[in-house]
Amino acid sequence: QVQLVESGGGLVQAGGSLRLSCAASGGTFSNYNMAWFRQAPGKEREFVARINWNGGTTYYADSVKGRFTISRDNAKNTVYLQMNSLQPEDTSVYYCAARATWAYNYDYWGQGTQVTVSS
Predict the structure, then answer these.
(1) Which of the four, 5, 68, 80, 94, has the lowest number of CB atoms within 10 Å?
(2) Percentage with pLDDT > 90 across the chain
(3) How many other CB atoms sit within 10 Å of the CB of residue 56?
(4) Is the pLDDT of residue 1 over 90?
(5) How far apart are CA 54 and CA 112, in angstroms?
(6) Are 18 and 1 in contact (CB under 8 A)?
(7) Edge to edge, what strands does the sheet with 68-73 contain?
(8) What average pLDDT score do residues 21-48 get?
(9) What radius of gyration do the chain's Cα atoms show?
(10) CB 32 within 8 A of CB 100
(11) CA–CA gap between residue 117 and residue 50 (Å, rounded)
(12) Which of 113, 115, 111 lies closest to 3 in space, CA to CA?
């Protein structure tokens, strides 16, 4: 059973930056592909970015491509989301999720961290 804890959210002005972290425990971190999702009030959860088990492959939603960077440090059991050029539409609760390399679904989720971007 993998536990995920996000941190790093907060309030930032438009154009600013934040770095989210997601610390994993309870499993072998390198056995998991990781991803970030977000959910704004009244909207469905949406995919933001993903990274494979060794960090060699990343993929981004079009809405964040060029502004956000996902990375991981397997020695620290942590995945990061560097968010630059933040806009008010990026305001959401951000969740990290883990998918075992042999699984189809993201079965493990963190509790979320709030990101609010003011205009």
Answers:
(1) 5
(2) 95
(3) 7
(4) no
(5) 23
(6) no
(7) 3-7, 18-25, 78-83, 68-73
(8) 96
(9) 13
(10) yes
(11) 22
(12) 111
Place of tokens 């060699």: 56
Residue linked to tokens 């704004």: 40
Among all chains, which residue has been given the structure tokens 């959860």?
45
Tokens 């883990």, residue? 98
pLDDT at 108 over 90: yes
- Whose structure tokens read 């804890």? 5
Give the pair of three-digit tokens for residue 70: 């996902």
Read off the tokens for 88.
Answer: 């008010």
pLDDT at residue 79, as a whole number: 98
Question: What does the alpha-carbon distance between residue 94 and residue 38 come to, in Å, rounded to a whole number?
Answer: 4
Q: Of 61, 58, 26, which is closest to residue 47 (Cα–Cα)?
A: 61
* CA 79 – CA 81 distance, rounded (Å): 7
Integer Cα distance of 69 and 14 in angstroms: 18
Handedness of CA 39, 100, 80, 55 (dihedral sign): negative
